[in-house]
């Protein structure tokens, strides 16, 4: 197994804290949360109390002023595999950075304190029914009415969508220009803002994935994030980090699947032998171990580059693509090694298999990643004409 | 134009029309209810029985049609999967459990069990697998002790399909201490000491009730022993080729249906101003799957003809099962991927197909066991080749 | 026990015996010489002709047997590959070039060209591909200018199989300025202005002479035009389904032979005190390949029957070609791997098979082109689906 | 493309030197050397003059006393892909270390100067007809005759086997104990030592791969390397480095294949477009780019660990397995993207494809790597009984 060198001593101390907290406060609730279709609001507040939310926030907002990405990696590694519905990464490293980096001082002052305590749970609403990865196709409209904007439209597949009380919504601000998109902070309780169903899905049962509806929602001008025409550009600026935190979670889940499978195949016997000792099992596990280690090496390399501020969008796409594909192969082979047990809910591998299936799709499908990487290589008709 | 299937005659296609009409009119709409409650209804088996579609092979004296041409079973399975749900396991009743009665039951046993099996009043299941045995059937622990006029049955079975709604179980139990000394017994749910355990929750196949069952000092009358009490193992081996062919049929039917659902979706769903299906990557992957589906179908149909003539080798049945279940896995995975986020949502059929398909590479013998069988057939067994 | 091939009748198997006996006795030993010199000998074609094995379909008036059942060609190809070398391209002569004469030549043309083709005195080749065109046939630049009683041919072709020993070339050339306006011409090697370029060195297929050919003001008499001077493109399309079926037959025969060579090797070669074949990993991979070979064979044999009835669609021929060539690639790769270091050495047959196989996914239309064809057949073409 | 961070400035200066030398002295001879079936003796001497041979050798032997593994990586990266038959890595990092680390002072004094100048070309002879990766199965025998040993047997698939004039030969020293193996320096000209054929192979045409025969060869006791019973242990100690230098070469060749294919597909047109702009080409290249970058990340990570002296045999096996498998996929897809041209000798990709096929086999097949990794995971019946 690859000897990871990215962490220092303080990180490992933090890891122990996280692990102890999660064993006590998070993991025991898994079954209930899966039945509820979402985690509890309390666990968000508990995470806030621990200082696990948006650590980079200024101390005056209750944050730690700590922007070291590795602490969020540790959260992803320790919590994600065993409680996949608790989307700390989304809050901390996907939506939070918009508030931290692109919001007005007034917005930061207004929202950040509760974002740090966990009273406000963040979400971002881009996808619409029928658009998928194609952001240029969104139809939600925002019309400038002088001192406020009026928002109309609907969004779907919104993670944290059921619990969120502060959601950043992408909407077209010019009916004639598909690329003019604004980002709006929409708050719980704004008239006309409704949640639809908490969608049932293949996996991630404790993650609330919802539809959101906007029916003449009046959004005050103070809630616009940056340039109301420049939302696309803003979204692009955060993509590398978004994909990277995803990648960490994917490898971590695959690693967990590998580890419970190791236990299973050394314990379970068939034809008089532990099934792990059959050559086929040994070879499969050896191949998976190798792919996992390549995935860790690539991910950690990208994290280092990211910390140096030089991770390209293409490299982040490579990390997302590679780790999610490795994860898919790992959970599939690991389930197979469980035999019939692997199909039963009572064995964790069955949940990991179902949870993992979205990784190749969300935050940009594998196909979109290949487009990004391939265009980065110059393999694009449009660039040549 | 679909690749022509030459092994079906006009009468099979007429039968298909009849089945299809019935399923679309009378059963398709029940699927959500089945999924909700976790099993089909007794009336569904009975409806199949009334149509004459259970245990087609059974003699007319037992109410059957005496049709041993399994192309009819193939058609029935293809249509069931396309128009209802892959979890409606009437085929397991007719073609997985049934053949044990057909081949090894004596005339009295047939008289007493077959009429219910044919009418659907008696729903049948097979109980082989035990906790911790998996594919290693010789390692089972359930024991049947010879007590003169009856056997005393003790043990537990798991992963039993039709385990909740089943009335009659063909149970494998050790009848002696030698490895593989196994007998097969007909146990009915009304026997004292028989009980059902948990209705197991699983990743997919919600319509199929999978359960544990327990035997605590169940007195099984000697009349319920099938054939020789020491030959259960070879009886099982004898029935496995047909079971695996049927499993391959289910997998391939499911894969074909998933392909079609996906093809429709990608022609319709647009992204970047074009239908998803018009992208070269999508087109190439669908093309590759299409060619493999056609190839698998041609092979499987040949296997069906061979099985009809009792000429299908265990190796070839294993090949068909291996190929079709692996292909099914690839088709549902690619199909879900091309659905994007929608594919992960329960409201899209492909999400059910993805979950339902994962067991196919495991049950009726895992892909690894299939490879053992085929590989040994090549003379590469560890014991044969030294 | 091999999976039974039901599409062959006793007469085909008798033919196989006859071919096999001849090849083993008269030709197997020539393979090293062929490989050394880079081509077969004219006498080898003539020997095939004497046996009646060239252009089986040709009418008796031209010396042929009038057999249009391509199962005979399939058997011939299977035996050629197994007992001699995949690079002996008599099949290209008979079934790739020949059909152009069969379908599009007028009676005078047949009278003048077929007797030599049938006897093997005239070795035939087809000249389509040009430097830089690859699979995009509509983009060729060779031109045939109408000069009243003859056409004036100018241009260059490359990757021409039988290019060094060939006497008669069916040449595709533009007859006008519209994209795809192409005519087919019979050019013989003795025409002034015809010349051969380099005998191309390539990774494998050393027995197959692949060459460039050049046309510099070649006067081709009008009598040598095949059919309509503007319809060459659709003529080629018409012949492609059979060409691809033949290509699939070659690939699969080669894959089967590579499988057998490997199976023998791994039963014999020992490592860590056991035959290589007795390791589970080896057994599983061989099992997987065996099942896919059988499945591909069942499908391909169905395609052959459809082709016999002129019912094989371009999509199905493309599927067969895609599947069989990809499978061939996997079999030779795994086969070489199981040979270990020996597999990399020229003295082991698998090393030749590995090198010979790599072109199969490319020629007669690359795998990518096959996927385009199949994918468009599914309605996923960029132009059809908007 | 992954931004490799393993090299410092002095390495890049060295790279330039190597590149300039190779362009002038090495690459122009490729065609001749392929026809000859081996590189020239002169090029070895030229490399020696440049100081490229066994840089770690003490200055008193003409070496540089420089043990930094990265200089040999650079040689592998710059020379291997374009002149695959010039096996510097074998000389410097596979056989050389035996002399450097395990030989007697007397042997080092006697051999090292000419090893550094390139007058002596090194080889190692383990494999025998029929043994493959199974070293326990070797049959070559050495019999102790007091002041010398007498060697009998034959070896095959010996790289550098035709040019070598100093070959380290593994032979059984106890007929009753298969694991008692000694290592013997056999020198050109010793009576009874003969070379067999220079074997023709799928690729690596300019690499001399030969059979060696030993017929009552008298090997003086001074030519025994270490304990004549302990050869196995010695061989095991150098395996990590051997696999690592292999891995670097595999990724480098794959990278070269990728790069010439990029050029080809942007230049070659079909159906009115550069073939690289088709989505299929773009996606394939994107996937290959990703795998290549994972391979670099894994390899560089392992090199760092190796330089710290803590690379495990299992991790080295993972690197060898992963990089050779990636290389195989890369050259195959790249050839495919060349179409018919890819099959012709005049296109470099056809040679790379043939050269690469041995990578999954030599220095331990992929199957052996999986055995090593899998046993390292504890998935081994023998360890459990």
Would you give an account of this structure?
The complex is a heterotetramer, with 2 copies of chain A (385 residues) and 2 copies of chain B (386 residues). Chain A has 385 residues and is an alpha+beta fold. Helix content of chain A is 49%, strand content 15%. Chain A has 13 helices and 10 strands. In chain A, the strands form 3 sheets. Chain A has a 4-stranded mixed β-sheet with strand order 1-4-5-8, covered by helices on one side. Chain A has a 4-stranded antiparallel β-sheet with strand order 2-3-7-6, with no helix packed on it. The longest helix of chain A has 29 residues, at 239-267. The N and C termini of chain A lie far apart (47 Å). By secondary structure, chain B is of the alpha+beta class. Chain B has 3 domains: 10-122, Butyryl-Coa Dehydrogenase, subunit A, domain 1 (Orthogonal Bundle), CATH 1.10.540; 125-230, Beta Barrel (Butyryl-CoA Dehydrogenase, subunit A, domain 2); 233-377, Butyryl-CoA Dehydrogenase, subunit A, domain 3. Chain B contains 11 helices and 10 strands. In chain B, the strands form 3 sheets. Chain B has a 4-stranded mixed β-sheet with strand order 1-4-5-8, with helices on one face. In chain B, strand 2 and strand 3 (150-161) form a beta hairpin. Chain B is globular and about 75 Å long. In chain B, 58% of the residues are buried. Chains in contact: A-B, A-C, A-D, B-C, B-D, C-D.
């Amino acid at each position: 197994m690859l000897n990871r060198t990215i962490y220092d001593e303080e990180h490992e101390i933090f890891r122990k804290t996280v692990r102890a907290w999660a064993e006590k406060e998070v993991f025991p609730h898994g079954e209930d949360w899966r039945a509820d279709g979402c985690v509890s609001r309390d666990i968000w507040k508990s995470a806030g109390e621990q200082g696990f939310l948006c650590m980079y926030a200024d101390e005056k907002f209750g944050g730690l002023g700590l922007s070291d990405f590795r602490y969020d990696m540790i959260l992803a590694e320790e919590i994600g595999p065993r409680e996949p519905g608790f989307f700390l990464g989304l809050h901390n490293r996907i939506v939070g950075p918009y508030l931290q980096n692109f919001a007005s001082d007034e917005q930061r002052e207004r929202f950040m304190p509760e974002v740090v305590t966990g009273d406000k749970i963040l979400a971002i609403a881009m996808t619409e029914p029928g658009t998928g990865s194609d952001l240029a196709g969104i139809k939600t409209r925002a019309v400038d009415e002088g001192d406020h904007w009026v928002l109309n439209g609907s969004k779907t597949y919104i993670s944290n969508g059921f619990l969120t009380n502060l959601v950043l919504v992408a909407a077209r601000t010019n009916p004639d220009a598909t690329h003019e998109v604004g980002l709006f902070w929409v708050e719980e309780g704004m008239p006309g803002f409704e949640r639809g169903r908490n969608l049932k899905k293949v996996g991630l049962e404790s993650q609330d994935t919802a539809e959101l509806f906007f029916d003449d929602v009046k959004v005050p001008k103070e809630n616009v994030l940056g340039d109301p025409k420049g939302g696309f550009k803003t979204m692009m600026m955060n993509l590398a980090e978004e994909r990277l935190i995803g990648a960490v979670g994917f490898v971590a889940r695959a690693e967990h699947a590998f580890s419970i499978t190791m236990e299973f195949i050394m314990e379970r016997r068939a034809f008089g032998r532990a099934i792990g000792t059959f050559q086929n099992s040994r070879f499969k596990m050896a191949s998976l171990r190798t792919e996992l280690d390549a995935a860790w090496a690539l991910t950690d390399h990208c994290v280092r580059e990211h910390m140096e501020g030089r991770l390209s969008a293409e490299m982040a796409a490579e990390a997302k693509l590679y780790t999610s594909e490795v994860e898919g192969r790992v959970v599939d082979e690991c389930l197979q090694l469980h035999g019939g047990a692997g199909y039963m809910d009572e064995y964790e591998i069955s949940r990991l298999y179902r949870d993992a299936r979205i990784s190749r799709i969300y935050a940009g499908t594998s196909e979109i990643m290949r487009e990004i990487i391939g265009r980065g290589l110059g393999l694009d008709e449009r660039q040549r004409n | 134009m679909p690749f022509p299937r030459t092994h079906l005659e006009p009468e099979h296609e007429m039968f298909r029309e009849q089945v299809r009409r019935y399923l679309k009119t009378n059963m398709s709409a029940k699927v959500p209810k089945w999924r909700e409650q976790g099993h089909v209804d007794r009336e569904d088996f009975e409806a199949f029985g009334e149509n004459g579609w259970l245990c087609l092979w059974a003699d007319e004296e037992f109410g059957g049609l005496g049709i041993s041409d399994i192309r009819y079973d193939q058609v029935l399975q293809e249509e069931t999967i396309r128009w209802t749900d892959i979890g409606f396991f009437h085929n397991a009743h007719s073609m997985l459990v049934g053949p044990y009665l057909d081949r090894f039951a004596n005339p009295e046993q047939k008289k007493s069990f077959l009429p219910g099996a044919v009418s659907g009043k008696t729903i049948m299941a097979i109980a082989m697998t035990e906790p911790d045995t998996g594919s290693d059937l010789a390692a089972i622990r359930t024991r049947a002790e010879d007590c003169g006029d009856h056997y005393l049955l003790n043990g537990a079975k798991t992963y039993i399909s039709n385990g909740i709604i089943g009335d009659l179980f063909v149970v494998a139990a050790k009848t002696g201490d030698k490895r593989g000394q196994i007998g097969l017994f007909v146990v009915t749910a009304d026997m004292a000491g028989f009980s059902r355990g948990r209705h197991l929750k699983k990743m997919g196949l919600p319509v199929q009730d999978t359960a544990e069952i327990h035997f605590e000092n169940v007195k099984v009358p000697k009349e319920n022993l099938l054939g020789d009490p020491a030959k259960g193992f070879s009886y099982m081996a004898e029935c496995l080729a047909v079971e695996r062919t049927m499993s391959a049929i289910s997998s391939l039917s499911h894969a074909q249906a998933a392909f079609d659902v996906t093809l429709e979706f990608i022609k319709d769903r647009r992204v970047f101003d074009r239908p998803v299906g018009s992208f070269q990557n999508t087109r190439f992957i669908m093309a590759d799957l299409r060619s493999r589906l056609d190839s698998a179908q041609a092979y499987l149909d040949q296997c069906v003809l061979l099985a009809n003539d009792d000429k299908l080798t265990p190796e070839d049945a294993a090949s068909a099962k291996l190929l079709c279940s692996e292909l099914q896995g690839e088709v549902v995975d690619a199909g879900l991927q091309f659905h994007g986020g929608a594919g992960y949502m329960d409201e899209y059929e492909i999400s059910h197909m993805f979950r339902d398909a994962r067991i196919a590479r495991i049950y009726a013998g895992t892909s690894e066991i299939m490879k053992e069988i085929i590989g040994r057939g090549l003379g590469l067994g560890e014991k044969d080749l030294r």
